[in-house]
Every structure is written in C-alpha cells, then in structure tokens.
Write a structure and sequence with these properties.
There is one protein chain. By secondary structure, the chain is mostly helical. It has two domains: 3-88, RNA polymerase sigma factor, region 2, helix turn helix motif (Rna Polymerase Sigma Factor, Chain: A); 97-189, Winged helix-like DNA-binding domain superfamily/Winged helix DNA-binding domain (Arc Repressor Mutant, subunit A, Orthogonal Bundle). Helix content is 68%, strand content 0%. It has nine helices and no strands. The protein has helices at residues 3-13, 17-39, 43-59, 70-81, 111-127, 130-140, 146-153, 157-176, 180-189. Helix 2 packs antiparallel against helix 3, helix 5 packs across helix 8 and helix 7 (146-153) crosses helix 8. The chain starts with a helix and ends with a helix.
C-alpha cells in the first residue's frame, strides 16, 4: 500500500471529514460504474449501493482495516454488496450503445457499417458467460486494469487474464463467420 493511501486511511479512521470527502470524490464515479456493471443495476440502485458502502465505512471507521490497497478494499466492498440489490434490477448489465464511446471514426461513408458492427459486437458481448462479459466490460469500457478487476471480483490475475482472453476469442470467432470480417478489413485498409 502506498504512503498516500495509508495517510488517507489513517485520517479517515481519526474522523477527518475532509479526508473522507477526498476518498469519496476519488472513488465515487468508478464504484458506481462498477456496481452497474457487476450487479446489473440501474444507475440509481448503483448509487444507493455505493452510498451504503461509504456510509458503512464512515460508521465503522475506527475499526476500519485495509489489507492490500484502498482500491481493492472499496471495489471488493461493492462487489460483496451488489448481490443484495440484485432483486432491484431494472436494467441489463450493459449500457445502451449510445453510452459507449466509439473507438473508430464514425462519420462519412462508413457510418452505417460501423453502427452495424457495433451492434454485432454488442450482441456477442451479451451472449458471453457472465464473468467473461464482466471482465471485458470492466477492462474495455470502464478502463480498469487487470489487478483492479481481480481485486474487485475476488479473482486471481491469471483468472482475469483467462476470462479476458476468452472474451476476445469469442468476439473474434463471432465476427469471423460473418461478412463483418471482410467488411472490417476493407474499412481498415481504406484508412
């Protein structure tokens, strides 16, 4: 654990509200995204879950113990609480395509092709086993690194890497048997 994290944890344990607010502001958006992704929660439910985690942390701050890292603790706490709100699911795990940032130029003559390709990839992701989908989305959409995903989901780094490799293989296989393999190659070659 880094010294900055240790100092922040010690300050929160001592009841420093400003340190707690710093912690809250730094992790709030990431934890809400994470809760939506792993628990399949609506945004409001994810916010409620993360709020409950922070409230519980503040109430038990004097006994608060962090073993590995602050990030691992917080993501793990959200992961452990997410199933509790599973009955409140109002949305699918994946956000609508409009929330995804395009990773290619989505203008000009290739716009319909890119849109159809995005839909095809989204369908492949929807069909993935749950853990593969979670790892893929946490890595590629939320931008978490392998260690953060492992800590958050309670998996080993090797297991996360296996799920990620499987997810990429499923996408490649899902596109290989379609016209998208040739179309994608043409689009990339025209650049």
């Amino acid at each position: 654990m880094r010294r900055e994290e240790e100092a922040l944890i010690a300050a929160v344990r001592a009841g420093d509200r400003q340190a707690f607010e710093t912690l809250y502001r730094a992790y709030w958006p990431l934890l809400v995204k994470f809760a939506r992704r792993i628990g399949g929660l609506a945004t409001e439910d994810a916010k409620e879950l993360v709020q409950d985690v922070f409230l519980g942390l503040w109430r038990s701050r004097e006994r608060w113990s962090v073993r590995d890292s602050l990030s691992s603790y917080l993501f793990g706490a959200v992961n452990n609480r997410a199933p509790e709100l599973g009955v409140k699911r109002r949305r699918a795990i994946d956000p609508p395509l409009s929330e995804w940032e395009p990773t290619v130029d989505n203008s000009g003559p290739h716009r319909p092709v890119v849109h159809e390709l995005e839909e095809r990839v989204a369908a492949i992701i929807d069909a993935m086993p749950m853990r593969c989908r979670q790892v893929y989305l946490l890595y590629h959409v939320d931008g978490l690194d392998t260690r953060a995903i492992a800590a958050a989901l309670g998996l080993s780094v090797i297991t996360v890497n296996r799920h990620h490799a499987r997810a990429l293989h499923l996408i490649a296989r899902g596109l290989a048997d379609t016209e998208w393999a040739d179309t994608l190659a043409k689009v990339l070659d025209s650049r």
